[in-house]
């Protein structure tokens, strides 16, 4: 169903019905060869990062933006609305890629979407992308590579436990409304972080 996002009510997404959790959407089943439908929800990290981008459009205006682990496409849509020159929503799940494009159309913005990142970006965004150790390691390596290439890196994270805080500086904090069926709480304190602009710091933690 098409629903307004709590922290970014100017954006509407096709989301799971209220009261449904992650595995309710997947029929209560887990398949090792198919990722859960993360794209059916507006996760706290993505909400906070999207809000930050909308409130600080100069971060992305007239720049090439990549949204890694896009899920529903929320952050990519926020970047497009904020005036980015080009936005690519990236997710390893083809269903998420399709969802991002569908949600962009619902918000009258144009984005590209792919299962692999484009070769270059001025700004790289990642919302709620550190939810397991393996995913966090992969995401950290990808973000470090983008930083070395000169991209500005912004991340939204609600304290999932695998976020490499040592590489980042805090820029903003939000109290994000979330579905209790998804998070077992009604709100999550979520931080927007920017990767430090020091090559030495990055190299020390490879």
List keywords for this structure.
Rossmann fold, 7-stranded mixed sheet, alpha/beta, globular, two-stranded antiparallel ribbon, 30% helix, 7 helices, 206 residues
Describe this structure in words.
This protein has 206 residues and is α/β, with parallel strands linked by helices. The chain has one domain (2-203): Vaccinia Virus protein VP39 (Rossmann fold, 3-Layer(aba) Sandwich). The chain has helices at residues 22-25, 44-55, 74-81, 94-106, 133-148, 180-183, 199-203; strands at 2-5, 8-14, 64-68, 86-90, 112-114, 123-127, 152-157, 168-177, 187-195. The strands form 2 sheets. It has a 7-stranded mixed β-sheet with strand order 5-4-3-6-7-9-8, sandwiched between helices. The longest helix has 16 residues, at 133-148.
Total domains = 1
CATH C-level class is Alpha Beta
CATH topology: Rossmann fold
At CATH's second level, what is the architecture?
3-Layer(aba) Sandwich
Q: What does the radius of gyration come to?
A: 16 Å
Quickly give the structural class. Answer: alpha/beta
User: What is the CA–CA distance across the termini?
Assistant: 42 Å
Instruction: Name the average pLDDT.
Output: 91
State which percent range the strand residues make up: 25-35%
Q: Please work out how many helical segments DSSP would assign.
A: 7
How many strands in all? Answer: 9
Sheet with most strands: strand arrangement: 5-4-3-6-7-9-8
List SSEs in N-to-C order.
EEHHEHEHEEHEEHEH
Q: Per the principal axes of the C-alpha atoms, what is the gross shape?
A: globular
User: At the fourth CATH level, what is the homologous superfamily?
Assistant: Vaccinia Virus protein VP39
- State the helicity in percent bands: 25-40%
Low-confidence stretches: 28-32
* Major beta sheet summary: 7 strands, mixed
